[in-house]
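Hi support team,

I've been running sequence recovery on a batch of backbones for a student project. Most finish fine, but this one hangs at about 90% for roughly twenty minutes before it completes. I'm not sure whether the input is malformed or the queue is just slow. I've pasted the structure tokens below so you can try to reproduce it. Let me know if you need the job ID as well.

Thanks,
M.K.
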């Protein structure tokens, strides 16, 4: 009798196809200008805050309220409005206080910051003089880290990173992810990425893995496997972008500090 292939191989195929499609969509939005990029990250942000609410026990009405509250800073972030700046930053924190008071939950209010800050950071990077490269670097290092961690973890295995949070992650995967992200960033220096940012990439790769672990902890606490079901093979939008959440603000801060 011919053995049945493991289910995970089919899942890997779906995950790969969807992952490549998402990367292509993000790259196209980056390439064709700030408005399309803003539109893409806005749609992603609304899905993310909806899933954040689900992970923290929000009902359907509260999730809609969270989306409405976040729409205010998202609208201001549009290149047709004020764009990324202190006004949008203030409105993100304003959404946090509003939601925390109305829902009587600091955790639900924190979703506005968890989702809003990465959006602000990515749009700031894209609006920079060298914005196409900077925004691509911030996102691509996370992709490279995920790919490197996956294949290094499968090929090498070894001690678990945090088995009580994510039983599949290994130290080998972490190291493989850092190496992959750093190598990719060094490659990007040939096309205009400042060397200082490439040298900071290992730190950002570790942050990407930390963001993944943090969301895994949230899912474990909520008793769910995925944050949502929007993306076949990946789960929710939060599942796909959890590593980018801490990376984008720090990447933007590095650009500001370096005066690039």
């Amino acid at each position: 009798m011919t053995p049945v292939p493991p289910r995970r191989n089919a899942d890997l195929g779906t995950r790969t196809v969807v992952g490549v499609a998402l990367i292509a969509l993000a790259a196209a939005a980056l390439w064709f200008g700030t408005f399309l990029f803003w539109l893409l990250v806005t749609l992603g942000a609304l899905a993310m805050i909806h899933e954040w609410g689900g992970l923290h026990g929000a009902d359907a009405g509260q999730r809609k309220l969270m989306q409405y509250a976040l729409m205010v800073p998202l609208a201001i972030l549009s290149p047709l409005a004020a764009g990324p700046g202190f006004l949008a930053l203030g409105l993100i924190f304003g959404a946090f206080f509003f939601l925390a008071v109305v829902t009587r939950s600091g955790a639900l209010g924190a979703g506005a910051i968890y989702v809003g800050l990465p959006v602000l950071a990515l749009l700031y990077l894209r609006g920079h003089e060298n914005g196409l490269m900077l925004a691509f670097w911030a996102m691509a290092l996370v992709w490279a880290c995920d790919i490197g961690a996956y294949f290094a973890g499968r090929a090498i295995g070894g001690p678990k990173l945090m088995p009580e949070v994510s039983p599949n992650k290994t130290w080998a995967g972490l190291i493989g992810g850092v190496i992959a992200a750093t190598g990719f960033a060094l490659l990007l220096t040939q096309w205009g990425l400042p060397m200082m940012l490439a040298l900071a990439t290992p730190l950002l790769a570790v942050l990407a893995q930390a963001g993944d672990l943090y969301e895994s902890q949230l899912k474990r606490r909520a008793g769910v496997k995925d944050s949502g079901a929007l993306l076949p093979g990946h789960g929710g939008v939060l599942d796909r972008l959890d590593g980018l959440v801490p990376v984008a603000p720090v990447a933007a801060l590095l650009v500001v500090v370096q005066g690039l």
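--
Follow-up from support: It reproduced on our side and the slowdown came from queue contention, not your input. The first strand starts at residue 160 and ends at 162. No action needed from you.
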